[in-house]
Amino acid sequence: MVFVGVGMPNIACNLARHTVAPHLELVYESGVFGAKPARLPLSIGDPTLISGATSVCSMSDLFMNYLQGGRIEVAFLGAAQIDRYGNINTTVIGDYDNPKVRLPGSGGACEIATHAQKTFIIGRLKKRTFVEELDFRTSAGHLNSSPKTRESQGMPGGGPEVVVTDKAIFRFDTESGEMTLTSLHPGVTLKEVQAEVGWPLKVASDLKTTSPPTSDEIRIIREELDPDGMYTSK
Amino acid sequence: MKIKSMPEAIAEYVHDGDTIAIEGFTAFICFSAAHEIIRQRRRDLTLCRMTPDLIYDQMVAAGCARKLVFSYLGNPGVGSLHCIRRAVEKGIPHALEIEEYSHFGMVSRYMAGASHLPFFPLQSYTGTDLDTANPKIQYVESPYGNGQIAVVPPLNPDVAIIHAQRSDELGNTQLWGLVGMQKEVAFGSEHVIVVVEEIVDESVIRSDPNRTLIPHITVDAVVHQPKGTHPSYVQGYYDRDNRFYLEWDKISRSEEETKAWLDEWVYGVENWEGYLEKLAAKEPEIWKRLAPGEALSQPVNYGVYG
Q1: Distance (Å) from the C-alpha of residue A2 to the closest C-alpha of chain B?
Q2: Range of the domain at B74
Q3: In this complex, which of A58, A68, A139 lies closest to B179 when CB atoms are compared?
C-alpha cells in the first residue's frame, strides 16, 4: 500500500509492480486507490490513473480514512532541501515573507510525512539540497533527534526510512535519527558524496556498494515505463 | 431559470473583492470561467484552490487577484507557476497576499465550511514551520485527554465554480473521475455556478442517483460550456492537453509573452466559443488528439420498488 507521486516515485513503484511486488496497491493523493496506469501519468491527476482503478474517492476520504487512518505503508517524498534528520523543505528558499525562490509548498507532503508508516525520500544528490539548515520546514522527518521524538509529539508514522539518490543511498540511525551513508553506487567515492552534503556525513561501518539494476529492470524502465526518457534520461 | 451563458453567470455572481473557489483537483479545471472573469476585468479577488494551477497563474497575471489561498503552488508534472512566483517574489503585476495550508488543511477547511463547523481538526503540521507562516493554523487540547490537535477554520467562498460532465436544468450535477472536494465546496459557498459538458434530462440524473455529486439546492446557475476546461480535462470527454501545460511553462517565464498570450487568447476573443475556434484553427486535429476512447462502466440495477 504505497502513496505515489509523479516522476521517479511513479517509475519506482510501477517497476516494483512489474518485478518484486506485483500486488502493490498504488494510492494517489488526488483520490485514487489501486491505480493501474496504462501510460506514464503526467501528473497525480492524470485520467489514466482513474480508468481501471479499484476505487476513486473524495480527497477528504483519501486524507482522513486512507492516510490519517494509518493505511499507507510507504510514501515517497521529494525535497528542495533536506537536513541530516530527514526534515524537508519544499516551500521557500530565503525568507518566507520575502522569498528568493518561491517553491510549490506542502501539497500533501506535510501530512504524508506525519502519517505514512515509512517515507522514502528520492532525489538527486546536490549540495544545495543536502543542507546543514533548512530555510523552512515543510515536512517533519526525525525532527532534531531520535525517532522517538516523533512518537512523543503524537506523530503516528515512522518517518524517513531511506534516502535514494543518483550517487548513494542513506538510511537513518535508529538511535540518533541521523542520516547515515550506507551504500555508494558503483564508481562513486565517499569524497564525492561528502562534497555534495552540507554537514559532516555519518558513514555506516559496513558501507556497501549498491547493486546495479538488472538488465530486465533497465529494459522495463526504458521500454515500458519511461520510453520518452522524460524522467530517467536527464 | 438557472441556465445562463458564461458571461451572464460571471456578471451576475462574481464581483470585485469576492472570495471565489474554482475547484477541481488537477481535473475539471474551469478555464472558460476564469477567462470570462479576466475579460470582465474583476479585481481584488481572493482566489481559493488547493492547486492554483495554470488557471490562477493566468488570473494573477491578468491582475484579478489580491490574495491566494492554496496548498500546492505548482504546474502539475511540469514545474513552477511563473506568474504567481513573479507576484510573490517581485510584486509583479502587484503584490499578492498568500494564505498557505497543506492539502489536508484545505480539505479540512472545505469540510468545516460545508458543514458549518467552527473549525476542523486534523493530525498534521506538528514539527513544521507551516503553523508559524500561517497563524490561522491553530492547536486545541483534546477534551478526551489525548493531547493537542491542529485545527483550521472553515472556508466559505462567496462563489464556487465547478465543472462536471453533466447536469439537468435545475443543476443536479453528476461527476465521475476525480471528485476532489467539489461537493464540499458547493455546499460551503454562498453561490454556486455549475459548468457542464452536457445538459441532460432529469430522468438521466434519476437513473443513477449515486453519481449525483451536487444537488440543485446548492446551485444558482448552470452554464452549458462544452470543452470548457481546456487545457485541463473532463474524464471520458477529453484528455488533458499536456502540450499546453508545457508551452505555458515557456510563455509564463516572460511577463511580455504572458501579456501577449492573454491579449491574443483571452481579451482577443469575445467568449469561449471564440477561444475554441482559435484552438481549432491552430490545430485542426486537436480534439482527435485529446479524444480518450471508450471504457464504459457496467450498468447496475437499482431495482423497481412499488
Answers
A1: 18
A2: 3-101+156-282
A3: A58
Q: Tell me the pTM.
A: 0.96
Query: CB pairs below 8 Å between A and B: how many?
Result: 167
Give the residue-averaged pLDDT of A164-168: 97
Instruction: Give me the mean pLDDT over the A7-27 stretch.
Output: 89
User: Which residue carries 493523493 as its cell?
Assistant: A29
CATH number of B275's domain: 3.40.1080.10
Which of B137, B52, B59 is closest to B101 using CA atoms?
Answer: B137
User: Domain count of chain B?
Assistant: 1
Q: Are A31 and B179 in contact (CB under 8 A)?
A: yes
Give φ, ψ of A179 to 5 degrees.
-65, 130
* φ and ψ at residue A32, rounded to 5 degrees: -120, 130
Which is catalytic among the residues A29, A132, A151, A161?
A29
Chain B residues within 8 A of A43 when measuring between CB atoms: 26, 76-77, 240
Identify whether B39 is part of a domain: yes
Q: What is the mean pLDDT of residues A26-49?
A: 92
Rounded average pLDDT over B114-121: 98
> How does residue A5 score in pLDDT terms, banded at 50, 70 and 90?
confident
B76, closest residue in chain A (CA to CA): A43
Best A8, A40, A55, A59 residue to mutate vs chain B (most B CBs within 10 Å): A59
The answer to the question of residue B73 being in a domain is yes
**For range A181-205, the mean pLDDT:** 97
- The answer to whether the Cβ–Cβ distance between A109 and B26 falls below 8 Å is no
Count the Cβ atoms, other than its own, within 10 Å of residue A68: 18
Interface predicted TM-score of the whole assembly (ipTM), two decimals: 0.95
Would the CB atoms of A60 and B107 count as touching at under 8 Å? yes
DSSP-assigned states of every residue in B226-287: TTTTTTS-BTTTB---HHHHHHHHHHTTSHHHHHHHHIIIIITSSSHHHHHHHHHHH-TTHH
Angle between the N-to-C axes of helices B255-262 and B53-61, in degrees from 0 to 180, rounded to the nearest 10: 100
Task: DSSP letter for A65, please.
Answer: I
Q: How many CB atoms sit inside 10 A of residue B97's CB? A: 12
Domains and CATH numbers, chain A: 2-225 (3.40.1080.10)
For residue B238, the chain A residue with the least C-alpha distance is A47
Mean pLDDT along residues A186-197: 98
